[in-house]
Every structure is written in C-alpha cells, then in structure tokens.
Amino acid sequence: MMYRSQGFEIDLSRITRLYPAVTINAGGERAQVSLEWAELKQECVTIEAYVLVFDVDPLEEVPHNRVVLEFTCKKELFEAMRSVASMMPQ
After folding, report:
1. pLDDT (tens digit per residue) in 30-40
2. Among 25, 86, 84, which Cα is nearest to 53's?
3. Which H, E and C letters describe the chain, residue by residue?
4. Which of 17, 35, 42, 70 would be 55's cystine partner, CB 3.0–4.6 Å?
5. Measured between alpha carbons, how far is 39 from 34 in angstroms, rounded to an integer?
6. Could you tell me which of 61, 1, 43, 53 has the C-alpha nearest to residue 23?
7. Which residues contact 42 (CB under 8 A, 6 or more apart)?
8. Per-residue pLDDT tens over the stretch 54-64
9. Which of 32, 36, 10, 9 is nearest to 22 (CA)?
C-alpha cells in the first residue's frame, strides 16, 4: 500500500520503523527527540517541527533510507498518523 504525502510515495509494506518525533532547538543545537520528552521540556526547548519518520532499513542496521514528513503542529501530525494507521495491514 502506498502512502502519498508532501511529495513522497512511501511503500507501507516496506516500513521497518515508524514513529513520531519533534525537531527541537535547544541552545542553538537542533535534534529530533520524542514527542513526550519535548512536551516535558517545553520551557527549555523550542519546537521547530513535528515529524513522522518512516524507515525501511532492516532493524539490525543503522537507518539510512528514511523519509521524514514535517508538520507545523501536533494536530497535523496526529492526522497523518491516523491516515497511515488506517492504511496499514491488520
């Protein structure tokens, strides 16, 4: 099943890792962290984007082939997550 978003075509049957995250800026450094961590530390960090990460590399390998979709708010991220979940095989 193909998921199309933000100019990407993602083959959901090949996904080995799928997770939400947040791109933050803390003291001039950018990083991707968990959504939960960013919310706990929101007074110390600046959230730049909400992201949904799709990896297709085998679990035992370092992921090099990843697609990262960026969203401006958590609501958009959750809508994308619901859309992907509805397309995933049961």
Report:
1. 999 999 999 99
2. 84
3. CEEEECCEEEEHHHCCEEEEEEEEEECCEEEEECHHHHHHCCCCCEEEEEEEEEECCCCCCCCCCEEEEEECCHHHHHHHHHHHHHHCCC
4. 17
5. 9
6. 53
7. none
8. 999 988 888 88
9. 32
